[in-house]
Structure formats: structure tokens, C-alpha cells
DNA sequence: TATATAATAGTAATCGTTACTAATATTAAT
DNA sequence: ATTAATATTAGTAACGATTACTATTATATA
């Protein structure tokens, strides 16, 4: 059996993610951990982000902007992608997990989870146009 | 002003997409158009898929499997990603566009659209395990 | 038919991500 | 504590998806 050993780099990656609400990419995680681990390699960051995602400790957000974003908040919540400033932010709203039930009604497969993201212009970018 | 000129390649790409319900990637589109346009280049396929997406004639599906999928069906509908066979399929269900209203309630930005995809095991893969 | 210019083919380059390997860190057992 | 087993790392190379570049071709307009 393959066991998981503790790693200080993985802790640092996870802890950094916990401090951020803006869903950083692997590259951003890497650059922010460099001060503490000057020799950490980008591959280590990618490997641990994948591992943490598989373990369910973080989640991956794919919003079509050609790089994956990561979120240490694994509670069920939704995201918003601003097509102007490209930011990926949380969109606090009532829980919509019931759409999984709606989806199950006429579907023969097994639905395990869902991802929803909204697209538009964020509040900051709206205000800049005034 | 920049005008859009007609292109036989773009037509072929769009028409091919219309024949498919499985949301092919750029590479699959390319390989299926090769018989008709033996000299078409992959760049042309990518450029036109992007253009058609911008024009709203097709839609792009990002489901986190490191390549974009495309769909000529631009009506509001949802997708399912099978984490076993990696297929991206339609998931017919009642319309859930009202979640955009729910999202708007406590959000200061402008919501223009949303994307939802469900993840799990498709019917075919479920049956294979029996 | 001529002119303007958008689109293409072909290729090179870029970017995000993964794979490889020898060295290191962690864990469990002595 | 020491050792042994092995998971993890750093460093680098490789990969796949996508974009950029440029001379040529196709399309649209006059």
C-alpha cells in the first residue's frame, strides 16, 4: 500500500491557499512560497496541488481562462469570472446543490458533484466605466 | 472597421461541429476536417473556434480535463463529465437559468451567463463495472 | 478587373503542466 | 538514536494545447 508522508512544502502550499480568497493559480502559489522555500520547484507545487485536490482538501476551479485556479474553501459555493479583469472571485449566494437532484432525475449515470461558475463584469470593473 | 470575411474552412468547422453531440476538442475537429481540406492547419481550426465562440455561434466547455471542448448547441443546457472515460456529454434536464437570478441577489457585478457541469460516472461506465 | 484586406498554411514559439531521476526527508522499526 | 524503507523533493527536460508570425491566397468591394 502507498502511504502519504508528511511534507513541509505541502503544508506551506496548503497554508498559503488558506490565506487567499482569490483562487490563485499554481504559478502564483509558487511565487508566494518562494520566500519561505527558496529552492521549491514548480513541479512540487503542481504535484501537491493535484494531490490535495485528489484528497479533497482543496478544490480546482476551471473557468476557461487556460489555467487552473485553486481554492482551499471546499464548502459548496460558486464562483464568478470577470471577463474584463479576469479575476475569479467567490459569489456568495444561497446553496444550489439541489440542481444535482434535478440533474439526476433523467440521467442514468451517477452524479457525484457539480461546478458552476458565473461570467460577466465584476463590480470593480463596472465602476471603472463610469 | 474590421469586417469578417467568409471562409470555407470556417464553414466546414462549424458544420462539422453541428453534426456532433460529443463536444469535440480542437484536435478532433482538425482531424475530421482533414479529408475535406487536406491542407488545413491546426492554427486555422483554433482561430475559427475562438472566433465562432466570440461571435456566440458555438460555445466552449471547460471541464478541467486540460483541453477545451466545443459545442454548436448554444441553447442553455448542461454537461456531464465522466471521470472514468473522460467523456463530456449533454445532460438533459429542466432549465436552471434562474440560478443567475439567485446569484444576482447579493452580487454587485453584472452576471451575463453561467456554466454548470456535473461530474461523476456515466451510465456506460457504471454498467461496465457489473 | 483591380484593389484592399481578411483568412490561410506552414511553422515556430509560448505557456501551463507533467515526467524523469538522483538526492533528501519522513516514517516506522529496531 | 540508528537503520531501513520509501515517499517527496529539486532540478531539469519533455510534453501537449494553444497562440503568434509571415508570406501567400481567398474573399469582398468598387
Give an overview of the whole structure.
The structure is a homodimer of 130-residue chains. Chain A is of the alpha+beta class and 130 residues long. Chain A folds into two domains: 1-74, Orthogonal Bundle (Arc Repressor Mutant, subunit A), CATH 1.10.10; 76-130, Dna Ligase, domain 1, CATH 3.30.1490. Helix content of chain A is 36%, strand content 21%. Chain A is built from five helices and five strands. The first copy, chain A, has helices at residues 8-19, 26-33, 42-55, 98-104, 123-128, and strands at residues 59-61, 69-71, 78-82, 88-91, 110-121. Chain A has a three-stranded mixed beta sheet with strand order 4-3-5. In chain A, a hairpin with a 5-residue loop joins β3 and β4 (88-91). In chain A, α1 crosses α2, α1 (8-19) crosses α3 (42-55) and α2 crosses α3 (42-55). The model of chain A has no long low-confidence stretch (mean pLDDT 96). The A-B interface holds A 60, 62-64, 68, 78, 80, 82-83, 91-94, 96, 99-100, 102-103, 105-123, 125-126 and B 60, 62-64, 68, 78, 80, 82-83, 91-94, 96, 99-100, 102-103, 105-123, 125-126. The first copy, chain A, binds a DNA duplex (30 and 30 nucleotides) through α1 and α3.
What's this entry about, in short?
By secondary structure, chain A is of the alpha+beta class. Chain A has helices spanning 8-19, 26-33, 42-55, 98-104, 123-128; strands at residues 59-61, 69-71, 78-82, 88-91, 110-121.
Amino acid at each position: 500500500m502507498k502511504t502519504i508522508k508528511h511534507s513541509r512544502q505541502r503544508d506551506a502550499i496548503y497554508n498559503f491557499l488558506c490565506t487567499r480568497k482569490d483562487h490563485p493559480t499554481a504559478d502564483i502559489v509558487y511565487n508566494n512560497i518562494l520566500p519561505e522555500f527558496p529552492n521549491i520547484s514548480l513541479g512540487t507545487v503542481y504535484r501537491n496541488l493535484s494531490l490535495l485536490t485528489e484528497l479533497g482538501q482543496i478544490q480546482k476551479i476551471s473557468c476557461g481562462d487556460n489555467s487552473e485556479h485553486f481554492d482551499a474553501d471546499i464548502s459548496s459555493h460558486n464562483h464568478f469570472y470577470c471577463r474584463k479583469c479576469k479575476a475569479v472571485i467567490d459569489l456568495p449566494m444561497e446553496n444550489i446543490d439541489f440542481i444535482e437532484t434535478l440533474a439526476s432525475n433523467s440521467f442514468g449515470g451517477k452524479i457525484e458533484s457539480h461546478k458552476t461558475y458565473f461570467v460577466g463584469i465584476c463590480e470593480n470593473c463596472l465602476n471603472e466605466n463610469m
